[in-house]
Design a protein that fits this description.
formyl-coa transferase, domain 3, Rossmann fold, 3-stranded antiparallel beta sheet, globular, 3 domains, 7-stranded mixed beta sheet, 16% strand, alpha/beta
């Protein structure tokens, strides 16, 4: 048995693609026994760029440490199987389109009747209420609706493009694992289970806290005309870039940002992160840049008159300066002055990076079909109940028979189910 903080917790996972599987994998890393249910053909992510039949990089990366059950959830007998398993479960996690859980008989009310202490977490794109409640949705759709895509304002020609990786999906997976952990703690105090609702939309909005804060004294004169101007621009068929320009006239992006940006160096790129006035002073000391906004008396004029013109000149000066030294030289110089900075990497470079390796962020395991593999380790650690990967992702149907045995089914009954094509056994 796993020894993590959730050791002994039994989770039934009905999910696919990213948010639900990632949340379930995080629970497995914390020691929970996560049993993932898939259709007989496997969840869609298994066949997304298959490396071998029914196995893909994406599936393996999101489902480690779980037990796998292949079952036809639409079969009439599936309800009885799930009901048996739910009696002894702590958590049920659902990540299907709205209405699917009810159709399959694995909705909260049905399973709570079997196990009142059950913690039931359902994730949808938009939530259980409102005009979009019945719609399915992916990270891309939610990025568009929530403003994440517009906030990034990245363009593919004339068209805004999505933020990669699927930030709403992955962040929702983190929220799922946190919410379930909180509900388990609450149950320890009250003895009662409960329902949890997570949504991609809520996550995407929550990640934009400063943008999604309306302070009446400061924003009542700005936000309504901005919204109206953007809507009119759409009616006038203005390009997305023109819409961004309209938005930024009401909520301007500060000019002359030399302290928090990525610079091209003589041999690569370097990110410089200075988010306080003391750090700004250290950037100037390290580089020799002269920022006219910094006054001799220690004050700083954030937006002096004419800065819309002068600011870009300072940026150009800083960019030219950073191209005069290598990434390593600038990194060393900034470090000496106490300025946070770091080179730009591709993610594949981190498999051998000592910072990732020495902090347990690279773990290795053997997959029965894919062979030896490396992947990210647990993203946090605990001194008393350390987290650890509980093994690779399951082969389709790998644990079907064992899970049914634990539910009290005989070998004959299991063989009959398999012969009827109701379950899949690896």
């Amino acid at each position: 048995m796993a020894s993590g903080p959730l050791a002994g917790v039994k989770v039934l996972e009905f999910s696919q693609i990213i948010a639900g599987p990632f949340g379930g994998m995080l629970l497995a890393d914390m020691g929970a026994e996560v049993t993932k249910f898939e259709p007989l053909e496997g969840e869609p992510w298994r066949t997304f760029v298959e490396l071998v039949p029914k196995e893909s990089r994406t599936y393996a990366s999101l489902n480690r440490g779980k037990r796998g059950v292949a079952i036809d959830m639409a079969h009439p007998s599936a309800r009885e199987v799930i009901a048996r398993l739910a009696r002894d479960a702590d958590v049920v996690m659902i990540n299907y389109r709205p209405g699917v859980a009810e159709k399959l008989g694995i909705d909260y009310e049905t399973l709570r009747a079997v196990n009142p202490k059950l913690i039931y977490c359902e994730n949808t794109a938009f939530g259980k209420r409102g005009p979009l409640a019945e719609r399915g949705g992916y990270d891309l759709i939610v990025q568009a609706l929530s403003g994440l895509m517009a906030g990034e304002a990245k363009m593919n020609g004339d068209v805004p493009t999505y933020v990669y990786p699927a930030v709403a999906d992955y962040a929702t997976g983190i929220l799922i694992s946190g919410a379930i952990s909180a509900a388990l703690y609450a149950r320890e105090k009250t003895g009662e289970g409960q329902r949890i609702d997570c949504t991609l939309l809520a996550t995407a909005i929550a990640m934009q806290t400063s943008q999604f804060t309306w302070i009446e004294a400061f924003d009542d004169a700005t936000f309504p005309p901005m919204i109206e101007a953007i809507r009119q621009a759409r009616l006038d068929l203005k390009s997305f870039e023109e819409q961004v320009e309209i938005h930024n006239t009401f909520r301007p992006v500060g000019a002359g940002n030399v302290y928090y940006r990525v610079y091209q160096t003589a041999d690569g790129f370097l990110a410089v992160g200075a988010l306080s006035r003391p750090l700004w002073a250290k950037v100037r000391a390290a580089t020799g840049l002269i920022d006219p906004r910094a006054k001799p008396d220690g004050t700083f004029d954030q937006a002096p008159e004419g800065w819309e013109t002068e600011g870009p000149k300072l940026v150009a000066e800083a960019e030219a300066l950073f191209r005069t030294k290598s990434t390593a030289e600038w990194g060393s110089l900034l470090q000496q002055h106490g300025v946070p900075s770091g080179p730009v990497h591709f993610i594949e470079e981190l498999f051998e990076h000592p910072q990732a390796v020495e902090n347990g962020l690279v773990t290795e395991m053997d997959h029965p079909l894919l062979g030896h593999m490396k992947m990210v380790g647990p993203a946090f650690q605990m001194s008393g109940t350390p987290l650890a990967p509980q093994g690779p992702s399951p082969v389709l149907g790998a644990d079907t028979a064992q899970v049914l045995r634990e539910a009290g089914y005989t070998e004959e009954e299991i063989a009959g189910m398999a012969a009827a094509g109701f379950i899949g056994i690896a």
